[in-house]
Amino acid sequence: MCPDVSAKNSNRSKIQQFYESKVIFLTGGTGFLGKILIDKLLRTCPTFERIYLLMREKNGLTIKERLTKLLDDVVFARLKKENPEFAKRLSVVHGDPHIPNLGLSANHVALLSETVDIVVHSAATLRFDERLGVAITTNMAGYQTALFACPRDV
Q: How many whole angstroms separate alpha carbon 82 and alpha carbon 14?
């Protein structure tokens, strides 16, 4: 006998149903909005498959060290108590939103294009005196690259 899928889905919101089994590619995950999104998805949409976080080395920290620092943020305190294993669904992809093509390697482009269902581009430069070319590359061109790297969602 097959399980009643409609009964299972009726207990969940449309957003929870939307994210079910989805793979997400997130730029800007170390920023304010990115942290809030990660926390919210992990706490309220338990059936998504994975979040790939675009991350670069910064301030002398490797991406692994930055991920550890990110997960120690107070934003994740409640999540750590409720689900200590939450970080298992996060993966880091080395890249840089400040350079063309997000600085993604060919391997990462292949991985993302084969697996990602949803792209969330929240990386941005917040400097008001940033050179225009850098601001455009970071705030807009990265999103276009992300869409091309992950064509399943286009």
A: 23
DSSP secondary structure letter of residue 28: S
Per residue in 68-111, pLDDT (tens digit) is 999 999 999 999 999 999 999 999 999 988 777 788 898 998 99
Which amino acid makes up residue 21?
S
Alpha-carbon distance of 48 to 149, in angstroms, equals 20
Encoding tokens for residue 50?
């994975």
- Measured over the CA atoms of residue 119, residue 122, residue 125 and residue 131, the dihedral's sign is positive
In angstroms, the CA 118 to CA 25 distance is 6
CB atoms within 10 A of CB 64: 12
Q: What is the pTM of this model?
A: 0.80
Q: Is 74 helix (H, G, I), strand (E, B) or coil?
A: helix
